[in-house]
Design a protein that fits this description.
Layout: H1 2-6, H2 8-13, H3 15-31, H4 34-47, H5 53-102, H6 105-110, H7 113-156, H8 158-164, H9 168-205, H10 207-212, H11 216-268, H12 274-286, H13 288-315, E1 336-343, E2 353-360, E3 365-370, H14 376-383, E4 394-396, E5 399-400, H15 406-412, E6 413-416, H16 427-431, H17 440-449, H18 453-456, H19 476-490, E7 494-498, H20 506-519, E8 524-528, E9 540-545, E10 548-553, H21 555-561, H22 564-579
Parallel strand pairs: 3-8, 3-9, 6-7, 7-8
Antiparallel strand pairs: 1-2, 1-4, 4-5, 9-10
Helix pairs in contact: 3-5, 3-7, 4-12, 5-7, 7-8, 7-9, 7-12, 7-13, 8-11, 9-11, 9-13, 11-12, 11-13, 17-19, 21-22
Domain ABC transporter: 336-571
Protein name: ABC transporter transmembrane domain-containing protein
InterPro entries: AAA+_ATPase, ABC1_TM_dom, ABC1_TM_sf, ABC_transporter-like_ATP-bd, ABC_transporter-like_CS, P-loop_NTPase, Type_1_exporter
């Protein structure tokens, strides 16, 4: 019942639909009480030899009309209640998707993709079942049981009714016991399903790596273990499921046995008529559905409760970064500034960045270089405000980043991350992702600036070529350049290229950088790179080491310092000369 209470917000929003649907259910239950009474009267008429043809035709006609009326009303309650549950499923899916799009990277570092998919594919349908089958069985079984018992007590015999109900306490105990076990086991089964989903997702996305290291058999074996665990937990759920119906069947069988035996005695003693006994057994038959429905209700509610718990655990998660109460929604200048900026990832023992200070004026380019793990990408993600930041340490246009609305900040920045994620769509769709209204001419222009023009000639369908999931049909350099084109199409005031030229050759890199300087004159650009030629033209270059700035200056100034930058630049130039 707790699950239904937790869904009360939805029932209140759609109270008309559920009220009319349940009203049809109640009316059906009342009409179902007429056939046993009519048939019981016919049995008494046959026994007394008083049944006439007109009376028989009248009874048959009434039963036929009842059948047609029940058919129509059953259609209506199914349409209303099941339709309402489908609306709930859609609403929950929309809420879940919107919630996931608001969450920050720290959330996804804690949650597995497989678990999130399991909630969407398994748990939400289980909650939908609660809103349809659960509401149906709750309303129908309680009302049907109540009205049937009232008729059995008042119209037949209260002693016979009471005797037939003797086994019912055992039904209540067994369903409560099975329900508790089902809740626990179904929750564990859903967790196992999430693990299996996660394994499949990682195997499919990493299939090239699996094949490169000849780990197909090992991965199949690992999947077998995960799937066996999922099977075992689902079988444990099925064992409890399998106990519901036989238990209820046995208890109902005892009720029939008591009713028939004691009822026969009452007929012989003339306490009730034969027709009353026939009607009583038919009324007792009407109780079979509510009894089975009660067990089914416990099953559905426990499954829905376990699934609702998993969904609620996601909904209570709040994004680490949110807009302030009255955020600033516009930024006039493109100046980027850091003042003794220090940052540590959630749960980390030491800061990833320490005392970062720089000022990048409008129209200038900032180069960020350093060893792997020195904090280059962390600084870029910090400028996007993906994590909680130290207040008053990062500024855009003279405004602290935390005071800017997220939409205003990220709308001002074009970002090309290290991981070049392409969608399973056409090249044109991927480039126009951030600007769907872009014309074909604008898309082609962005691709030319990213040096993809000649590559398009290799594809039979040009920009309409589908790239496959994550751009599987493209080379690393092509994926990088399409990602750069996507950012260039936005023509953002601030452009961040996070090691986005690593997969292209030196000549292509030089062409892209030349286009950037020409097209982005007067706009701010930030480039992180391992290949120092990518930042050679920058107005300011920062060299990071273990999260700190160890060198700074222009290319000429850093070469004159004869430090890490100069040594690395000379080595790369030598390697390039040898390769050339």
């Amino acid at each position: 019942m707790q699950t239904l209470r937790q869904l009360s917000w939805f029932f209140k929003a759609h109270w008309k639909r559920y009220t009319v649907g349940i009203a049809f259910l109640f009316l059906i239950d009342l009409l179902m009480l007429l056939p046993p009474r009519l048939i019981g009267e016919m049995v008494d008429s046959i026994r007394d030899s008083s049944l006439t043809a007109p009376a028989l035709m009248k009874t048959v006609t009434i039963l036929l009309l009842l059948g047609l009326a029940l058919y129509g009303m059953r259609f209506m309650w199914r349409y209303l209640l099941n339709g309402g549950a489908l609306i709930l499923e859609r609403t929950l899916r929309d809420r879940l998707f919107a919630h996931l799009t608001r969450m920050t990277p720290s959330f996804y570092s804690r949650k597995r993709s497989g678990d999130l998919m399991a909630v969407a594919t398994n748990d939400i349908p289980a909650i939908e079942q609660t809103a349809s089958t659960g509401v149906l069985t709750l309303a129908d079984s309680l009302f049907m049981t109540l009205v049937t018992l009232v008729v059995m007590v008042t119209a037949i015999d209260w002693k016979l009714t009471l005797a037939a109900l003797i086994p019912m306490p055992f039904l209540a105990w067994s369903t409560a016991y099975y329900g508790r076990l089902l809740h626990e086991r179904f929750y564990l089964a859903q967790e196992a399903f999430g693990e299996m989903n996660d394994h499949v997702q990682q195997s499919v996305s990493g299939v090239r790596v699996l094949r490169a290291f000849v780990q197909e058999k090992a991965d199949v074996e690992a999947y077998r273990r995960v799937s066996e665990k999922t099977l075992e937990r689902n079988v444990s759920v099925s064992r409890i499921d399998a106990l519901f119906e036989p238990t209820i069947g046995i208890i109902i069988g005892f009720s029939f046995l008591i009713g028939l035996g004691y009822g026969t005695y009452l007929v012989f003693t003339s306490a009730i008529s034969l027709g009353d006994l026939a009607a009583f057994n038919m009324y007792l038959g009407l109780l079979i559905w509510p009894m089975f429905a009660f067990g089914w209700l416990v099953n559905v509610l426990q499954r829905g409760g376990a699934s609702h718990k998993r969904l609620s655990e996601l909904f209570i998660e709040e994004p680490d970064v949110r807009d302030q109460a009255d955020p600033i929604t516009s930024v006039l200048s493109n100046v980027v500034e850091a003042r003794r900026f220090t940052f540590a990832y959630p749960g980390a023992d030491k800061p990833a960045l320490r005392d970062i200070t720089f000022t990048l004026g409008e129209g200038e380019t900032l180069g960020i270089v350093g060893r792997t793990g020195s904090g280059k990408s962390t600084l870029c993600r910090s400028l996007l405000h993906q994590y909680q930041l130290q207040p008053g340490s990062l500024f855009v246009g003279g405004v602290p980043i935390e005071s800017l609305s997220l939409s205003a900040l990220r709308g001002k920045i074009g970002y090309v991350p290290q991981e070049h994620l392409l969608f399973s769509r056409t090249i044109a769709d991927n480039v126009a992702f951030g600007k769907p209204e872009a014309t074909s001419k604008e898309v082609l222009r962005a691709l030319e600036l990213a040096e993809m023009g000649s590559d398009l000639l290799q594809f039979r369908e040009g920009v309409e070529t589908k790239v496959g999931e994550r751009g599987v049909s493209l080379s690393g350099g092509q994926k990088q350049r399409i990602s750069i084109a996507r950012a260039l199409l936005l023509d953002a005031d601030i452009l961040i290229l996070d090691d986005s030229l690593s997969a292209v050759d030196a000549r292509t890199e030089e062409s892209i950088l030349r286009h950037l300087r020409q097209e982005r004159a007067g706009k701010t650009t930030i480039i992180t790179a391992h290949r120092l030629s990518s930042v050679q033209h920058a107005h300011l270059i920062l060299v990071l080491d273990e999260g700190q700035i160890v060198e700074r200056g222009t290319h000429e100034e850093l070469m004159a310092q004869n430090g890490w930058y100069a040594e690395q630049f000379r080595r790369q130039q030598m390697e390039q000369d040898v390769a050339g």
